[in-house]
Design brief:
The protein is an alpha/beta fold. Helices cover 44% and strands 17% of the residues. Pfam families: Glycos_transf_1.
């Protein structure tokens, strides 16, 4: 039985972390492999996303050696020089331990296949992985015209055996850039864990959006758009699911604009709770500036929701077929987004047609189908 190890930065909140857990569970469910997840940091007592009991989870650093970016930033902002010095030394210690512990693990690993999920992990796997180990990089982020980041990615992955990209556009880009290296670029999309047996009736007057509350997700833009909808006498409610650094800013906006009764910030919810909220909703709205792959759009489609997104989110362009299962709004045009949402709130027949088409599409992204693609890659060597 082959042993497969997936290297992770942490097992907390995040799209990459959810993808790692979903893949690990899917491979484990085949009963063909021995699966281990190796996480650098232990941010919580247990992983945020549920992991099969038969999967081994290894943490390289104790919980006390967690990233201290927040503490370092506060010391710098408040000009507390002694604290800044202490936090800087702590940061250097953590980075040293992070690198050393991962190098030691990779050097001594008996895994047949190792999958890395970050740029620095690609580098360490390339440099210290055994020759008889199948070394696979797995890139979840879009370079979004940041050529420095793209160059770092290429440099980190060029000596791996395979490099998995979650979108066709990313595969095309990196395949062209890496054509002179031994590493082969493979397209494997992310997967949804399941397609619910039931779907939203699309009668509830709720908009919903799910994701990390961080600047690139554009949730402040969503609130600005929603405020205009309320000014146009739209009576629908907005549900935002997720947590993150922007939460206090969003709460301030909601309070200042007196939207407390119209917007609910639910915080982090598990898959079952999200599914319940989606079944109460009738439209899914994404306002991200960038997305590598719109997994949450597939989850919304699996619940029968029509999806709207700005086309600046590259992953949305991979998932949404405009006019078929949702709409892509060009150039981050707020007025166009407002109009399309308003039109859909008044047209249940169109909502149902888009939702039906979305449910049909997501069958191509189920975990069993995508797991088969991963198995073929794993068995190549």
């Amino acid at each position: 039985m082959k042993k497969i190890t997936i290297l992770a930065l942490h097992l907390g909140y995040g799209g990459v972390e959810k993808a790692i857990v979903t893949l690990a569970n899917s491979l484990d469910d085949t009963k063909k492999y021995k699966i281990e997840i190796v996480s650098v940091y232990r941010l919580y007592d247990k992983p945020v996303f549920k992991i099969n009991d038969t999967i081994k989870v290894t943490y390289l650093l104790p919980s006390k050696l967690s990233p201290n970016r927040k503490e370092w930033g506060e010391a710098l902002h408040n000009l507390k020089l002694i604290s800044l010095g202490k936090e800087s030394l702590k940061a250097l210690k953590i980075l040293y331990k992070r690198r050393k512990s991962m190098i030691d693990y990779i050097k001594n690993s008996d895994s047949d296949v190792i999958i890395s999920t970050r740029v620095f992990l690609n580098e360490l796997l390339s440099d210290y992985g055994r020759d008889d180990t199948l070394k696979i990089g797995w890139e979840h982020n879009h370079y979004h015209n940041d050529m420095k980041y793209a160059t770092d990615v290429i440099r980190s992955a060029k000596n791996l055996d395979y490099f998995v990209l979650v979108s066709k556009s990313l595969q095309k880009f990196y395949k062209n850039k890496m054509k002179n290296y031994k590493c082969k670029c493979i397209y494997i999309p992310n997967t949804i864990e399941n397609v619910p047996k039931t779907k939203s009736p699309l009668t509830g007057e709720h908009l919903i959006s799910v994701g990390r509350l961080s600047p690139e997700k554009g949730y402040l833009d969503l609130l600005i758009i929603f405020l205009e909808l309320k000014n146009k006498k739209c009576k629908w409610h907005l549900d935002i699911v997720g947590d993150g650094s922007e939460r206090s800013k969003l709460e301030t906006f909601i309070k200042e604009k007196r939207l407390e009764k119209d917007v609910t910030l639910h915080g982090f919810k598990n898959s079952e709770e999200i599914e319940k909220l989606m079944k109460k909703a009738s439209i899914y709205v994404m306002t991200s500036y960038t997305e590598s792959f719109g997994i949450v759009l597939l989850e919304a489609m699996s619940n029968g929701l029509p999806c709207l997104a700005f086309d600046s989110a590259e992953g949305a362009r991979e998932v949404i077929t405009s006019g078929y299962d949702g709409y892509l709004i060009k150039h981050r045009n707020f007025k166009a987004m407002e109009k399309k949402i308003l039109d859909l709130t008044k047209d249940i027949d169109t909502r149902k047609e888009l939702g039906k088409n979305g449910r049909r599409k997501v069958k191509n992204y189920t975990s069993d189908k995508i797991c088969e693609v991963w198995e073929k890659l794993i068995e190549r060597k």
